[in-house]
Amino acid sequence: MKPVEYGLEKIFDGAQDFLPLMGTDYVEFYVGNALQAAHYYKTAFGFQSLAYAGLETGLTDRTSYVLQQDKIRLVLTSSLQSNSPIAQHVLKHGDGVKVIALWVEDARKAWEETTKRGAMSFMEPVVEKDKHGEVLRSGIHTYGDTVHIFVERKNYTGTFLPGYEPWQSEYNPTSTGLRYIDHMVGNVGWGEMNTWVKWYEDVMGFVNFLSFDDKTIHTEYSALMSKVMSNGNGRIKFPINEPAEGKKKSQIEEYLDFYEGPGCQHIAVATQDIIATVKALRSRGVEFLSAPPSAYYEAIPERLGKHKNLLKEDISELQKLGILVDADEEGYLLQIFTKPQQNRPTLFFEIIQRMGAKGFGAGNFKALFESIEREQQRRGTL
Ligand code: FE2
Fold this sequence. Notes:
With 382 residues, the protein is of the alpha+beta class. It has two domains: 21-166, 2,3-Dihydroxybiphenyl 1,2-Dioxygenase, domain 1 (Roll), CATH 3.10.180.10; 178-379, Roll (2,3-Dihydroxybiphenyl 1,2-Dioxygenase, domain 1). Helix content is 25%, strand content 33%. It has ten helices and 17 strands. The chain has helices at 34-45, 85-93, 107-116, 193-204, 251-259, 274-283, 294-298, 300-304, 315-321, 365-379, and strands at residues 23-30, 48-53, 62-69, 72-79, 96-103, 121-130, 133-141, 147-152, 165-166, 178-187, 207-212, 223-230, 237-244, 263-271, 324-328, 331-337, 348-355. The strands form two sheets. It has a nine-stranded mixed beta sheet. Strands 11-12-13-10-14-17-16-15 form an eight-stranded mixed beta sheet. The longest helix has 15 residues, at 365-379. The model is unreliable at 1-10 (pLDDT under 50). Fe (ii) ion is lined by residues 183, 185, 266, 268, 350, 360. The site of fe (ii) ion has 6 residues, from strand 10 and strand 14.
């Protein structure tokens, strides 16, 4: 199977990469009501029905709906019993990301290489088969109750995984232009960021290619620290955040309080046309953080510096939609953040369009966090 081309350069020579990753395979959420969550992600975000497993396919303990949009696959899983790890996960954390699954050539080797470097096993290598072939999966624990599952699917031609049936639905909302997962961010506890940076370096062979301290990421009231971890070919990027001391409560601390521990804070999904994507998402009811004040938009040409003549988008349109702009040496990027996507103020989505820039919008951190603080203020959690 030919690896998906993400247009990213190699971060370091693949020769030293003991854990070659070809991309994100799927992201599995544990949720209270997978049937309704699936409808929401189809209707609001433009995902399409892909596969299903539940009572009708022979399962007795859970139900899973698999959705797809271009290269993004989401699995929404609910327990059918009160006394199960899935139900306990939802009871403790609310709806959230349980599995960040990574596509590998050799899932047994991925498990051996990572566990021998100190990863705690979540799932020993297991072969699952059906008439379409076989899939080998294995898994390790990462921060909080989150896990990484390695998926080897080179001998499989089925829709998703053995045990799942194709899900044919008569309800097929159109795509909103989401293409692939750009990065997924983890929030960890006070003083734990460097522990997890070292874990991704030692256990998974990632490199730390960008760091932001609390002097970079702060507002008048709150602060956080962040280090971006990347695998060798740059296809998998995991920024790790921890809260920092400020006058008021950090948004990371709010997350940790409500998620009751470390977990996935946001999933950034790439689009090639953020204006069309955000218009479509807004029209389907997705809510975004409020736009920064107009001074932010007046300063965009200055922020873009040498790239200012490259900006294809109309600034007044970006302002109307609340889209943020940042630039680095190599180009610019456009981004916007949704409000939390479940009852608790925990997981949210970022929509990102990269126009050459490889950063994460550091120039937007202040505007973004002030916007989050306005929401925290309303929730009484600042
Ligand atoms: Fe992000």
